[in-house]
Amino acid sequence: MQLELSEQDAAFRAEMREFFTTKIPQEIRDVVASRGELSKDDIVTSQRILNAEGLAVPHWPAEWGGRDWTPLRRHIWHEEMQRACVPLPLAFNASMVGPVIAQFGTQEQKERFLPATANLDIWWSQGFSEPDAGSDLASLRTTAVRDGDDWIVNGQKTWTTLGQHGDWIFMLVRTDPEAKKQRGISFLLIDMTSPGVEVRPIELIDGGHEVNEVWFSDVRVPAENLVGEENHGWDYAKFLLGNERVGVAPVGATKRVLAQAKEWAGDTLADDPLLAARVAELENELLALELTALRVVAHSADGKPHPASSVLKLKGTELQQAVSELVVDLAGPASLASGAGDDSTLPQWTRRATPAYLNLRKASIYGGSNEIQRQIIARTILGL
Amino acid sequence: MQLELSEQDAAFRAEMREFFTTKIPQEIRDVVASRGELSKDDIVTSQRILNAEGLAVPHWPAEWGGRDWTPLRRHIWHEEMQRACVPLPLAFNASMVGPVIAQFGTQEQKERFLPATANLDIWWSQGFSEPDAGSDLASLRTTAVRDGDDWIVNGQKTWTTLGQHGDWIFMLVRTDPEAKKQRGISFLLIDMTSPGVEVRPIELIDGGHEVNEVWFSDVRVPAENLVGEENHGWDYAKFLLGNERVGVAPVGATKRVLAQAKEWAGDTLADDPLLAARVAELENELLALELTALRVVAHSADGKPHPASSVLKLKGTELQQAVSELVVDLAGPASLASGAGDDSTLPQWTRRATPAYLNLRKASIYGGSNEIQRQIIARTILGL
Amino acid sequence: MDFTHDDEQKALAEAVRGLLARTYGSYEDRRRTVKDEPGYDEKLWTGLAEMGVLGLPFSEADGGMGAGPIESALVAEELGRVIAPEPFLTSVVLAGGLVAALGTDAQRAETLGALSEGELLLAPALAEPGRGWTAEARDVVATGSGDAWTLEGVKEPVPHGATAGRLVVTAALPDGGTGVFLVEGDADGVTRTGYATHDGGRAAQVRLSGASATLLGDGTTDAAAAVARVVDETRVVACHQALGAMTVALESTTEYLRSRKQFGVPLATFQALTFRAADMYVSLELARSLAQWAAMVLGAASTGSADADPADAARRAALGTSRAARHVGQEAIQLHGGIAMTAEYHVGNYVSHLTALDHLLGDGHHHLRALAADVGGHAEVDPLP
Amino acid sequence: MDFTHDDEQKALAEAVRGLLARTYGSYEDRRRTVKDEPGYDEKLWTGLAEMGVLGLPFSEADGGMGAGPIESALVAEELGRVIAPEPFLTSVVLAGGLVAALGTDAQRAETLGALSEGELLLAPALAEPGRGWTAEARDVVATGSGDAWTLEGVKEPVPHGATAGRLVVTAALPDGGTGVFLVEGDADGVTRTGYATHDGGRAAQVRLSGASATLLGDGTTDAAAAVARVVDETRVVACHQALGAMTVALESTTEYLRSRKQFGVPLATFQALTFRAADMYVSLELARSLAQWAAMVLGAASTGSADADPADAARRAALGTSRAARHVGQEAIQLHGGIAMTAEYHVGNYVSHLTALDHLLGDGHHHLRALAADVGGHAEVDPLP
Description:
A: alpha+beta, Butyryl-CoA Dehydrogenase, subunit A, domain 2, four-stranded mixed sheet, 47% helix, C: 3 domains, seven-stranded mixed sheet, 9 strands
């Protein structure tokens, strides 16, 4: 056991910190710091700067831009980005479809897609969930029927985050309607400019437009856009969902907001022991979470997802939500003024507080709800 | 809606308060106040004083000592007893077997048992749970087989509280092994001095001897000791378990311990805002519970158990446990000294704190676990 | 002690529910209404006036119905059930309550009469930027005396402050203490910037630059205690509005668990979910008891019971409601899953409204602090005075 | 940063586990042992001495093994797994730690040598009746100077105070400050009343009436800071003892859910129960991370890292452990049901032991207060120095 970072890792951390705080435009990082909404341009700009430095997809195979870092370095890279308010590389590209193509795609697919994916020249959307297939993803009903050299896709996807920016979408589609649930699903890449693809916005309870429905009506997709083997899409989806061990819990971002909250609280923190205790308890839980993340990355060398990832997701989202709730309480009466413009006398953080709180209720629902995480822990770890 | 007690109810409350604080021996009430262990004599003495005044079984039919009080008065009676540290009338007698005999017993059974039950001349024990029939009570296996004018009883009961003092035991026994679970169960009264009855103590985690196993080996029970109809015992058990709407939640006793805790805390309460907040939160939850109890008693006129009784049991035991946990924390390092005698320099309440805390873990398990209460709420109230 | 409502009270609740159902028969109606200005349905507001609801708490002499806090609570609970955006709570109970508590006979009759008839909307301007919940004004300052007062400073957020005909403004008096003033919405020196709140309500920044104002009452005595009392009453009514919203949030959740299928079976098959619904019910019923009790305490206090402590009761009800609203609200979204995150579906907006109510006049943390500071002052809490 | 144990550490843990298994192969063995005096197994104690465990944290010059806090933590975790009543934590880590921190060369060699060999049991006498957890003595007073000291006052509860050969006693010094003294258990003026603690441990009231005592160290400087440091170290080791106990409590619970049938099916069929077991696992693993980290911080501090703050780390680990121990312990009983209430079954006693550990040196509330008072002193908590 060893507390300190090795000299090399400490230097690596300093290097990351330096890069993120000097090379990513301040105005982009300010948007993150104020919990504002990033534009598509912000996200693209940031990722391209990272990619130029080899910092966008360090966990990919070296051939396609990966860095062969230790899990600890990837953890440091990920935490320091959040700490510096750098927008993370787009998860759909960097953590989801990229690794799948790199692992299961043909050489043609890799060459065609991976560089563009790393550089965010293609913005990927995710087409997994459907109105009747959320936690129970395997009951999806969007079909792809073979017609000559094409697939004809029909159906509806939903909860497609930032689908309004999407150039391409990676999809789970049913290619064998006779097979049992998980069997008969394939993994398909679709150009979103194809005729028959329609993106419809979903307004969320914070008033934002972050997710979409995506409808497919007789959309023609070249057969070469199928990834891996036909009817094996479920395996690739499982790989994709279980692929990330680093960054499962949003530790760095939550720590940053909590540190900001203490600043926002100002003198109140010293005057109100109950508030101080609430902050101290959250800080301690976040510390425990961060340490657990460090323990988990240290044990992920075998390439399989560490089951404790579910602990990180579960507790990570709970703490993210708890901190956002704290900020609403700190804002007090000003937390109602979410619709006020920048000419308001109320500081921006007070006006952003409630929309952020409401928006983050999703954190425990999307990407494997916390009920699913509990089930994974109970089954996989505890054998129940 | 009306906040105040009517003049008559206010006078009633004053009368109860006066009686309980002057007529029940101080030394018995001191044992309750110090969370000590009551002797059998203490409990008998107290109940007989109450019974002489008509205050032991006010909820029974008037013919057998009942008072035809409004639910509000029964609530007041019950709360004031706890407030004054008066041992409550033995539940097995007053709340359980008494009402069953009064409702379903023969005239002979009523005359033979009810006066002695009200006066605690007979100490009743409860023979419901078995090693493999706890929350799933209907799977009980103790049998009673008819043999001439007698039943022959064989089997084992467990968790028999204060069974070491028991004169008689009321039992659920299986009289028709062919019938489906709930059918085929009968309600039987057994003299515990009968040959073949053996009481074996169970030591609990607080070191106390409060519950017992009771073994039955070919115990002969006269057929006249069957209550109601053969194979209808499940109905009587349901009546018994759902009978009490007043006093389901131990509000009064918990309030009293919390008030004592504030005294025990002394100056700390003013110096430690976190402690003060913990107490204030508990006080508020107890207030909500007490008010809910008052709402429930007001709606129990139809004679059926109000489903919100489960709310009272669930929240009542949680708060009882939370207050007991608070007391352990107040005791601090002295809470370890549970085995110290009265020559200890540490106050008695500090030494009783942890055993009381450990003992009260049972509150959410016995008498319908809190999981069962949640199930009742989900099914009966929410229709889930 | 009696928790039951009498026939008149039941009839009032039913009448209000019926009227609301005509405007907000479906959630889509409510959603459409809050998208347009003024953020509520003016026809419904007139209907409430005709039914006497807008004058409910005011004396008959002032043009009202002379009802008590229990009646206001019943109305608020019905409004909460459909999360109606009509500003009964802020305009009638709070702003009107301030006028009723502090105004001269003439001020009361004039302002409350018009309010009751639906002709004049009042906006309570209490909150000051950078400060928490308090009955004491500090940053908005009154200058003048007698009939000639002017106000200087900024109030924000002011519920419905951009469209209200008259503002009820707390301001620091020249010799210390807080005064409450009437300011015409369109007076010179009043700049108002309105916006929507996250729950579809309306609020505004109100900038006062030498705006002329009328002091409520006869003299310049400190009105902070009176303001605090009216705020306490409003808190209790707000608890009931939250009760209505929580009740529907739970009903919707149980209905969803019954009807929505996953893994081939209804969600209600999953015990981990139904037990959590049961816990929501426990929270809700405990909060209901506190809120109803607090309304009775207010009622007893308003009829002169010396033992009733409405400030304490309001705190206790508000703390219990805050805890319950967060628990019930958060679980309602979680048990629904993604659908509850959408603006089109109602449940998320119920949570948004509960969050707004919780932060309008003081959240649970705020009230717990106050109760904790007092905890040594009594041996136990006795609900019966 | 590295959370893995090296081979030597793994071998130590395995050896201790093996030795403990010979004495406490079943829970019944433990139950029998704590019923008799002295409340632990003397043969096992000797075995631990022979294995070097009783001298683990002390320097080789003092007769010990020169190991660090991580090794003590590993031993404690194994003891916690079988809730072994052997007083490693209080006698070796705490009382021995005080001697190691404060004693002269001669005092250390004499006392720690005997302790390490299992020939001398030490008892830490810190707690004073009516006071909370503190490193500062107040009510036990030292009189004298140089080699001639006497102590006056009462210490309670003193772990194993009735049977220990030597007591390590904190006392108020004549000129202020706290001194730490050695007192022979059978000295004149020492009256000891022993009893069992609720978890089967042993403690005593120790009444000192002019008992002669030896001051640890060379002079009468205030030792409170040194005492606090040793207490912090003991806290972290105690966290690991709790980890061991929690781990088994959870294992037993999952095993019970798998095997116990109700309503005709295994309890593991009920999702409401398995999800709660999952939450227990979450609590346990988060606490484990804190405890292991704190041990590393102690290790870094003991090798002179200036950035490591062992007091802060101990507080954080103790807070996390307190929260987890209550959650895991209470749920372990609840998910078992009645069986866990019985003394014969092991789980209830694990909870009893966890409760004792939580209250030995400061509970979660105590630590949260301290952390809250410091919360403004840093922007964020960084686990890497």
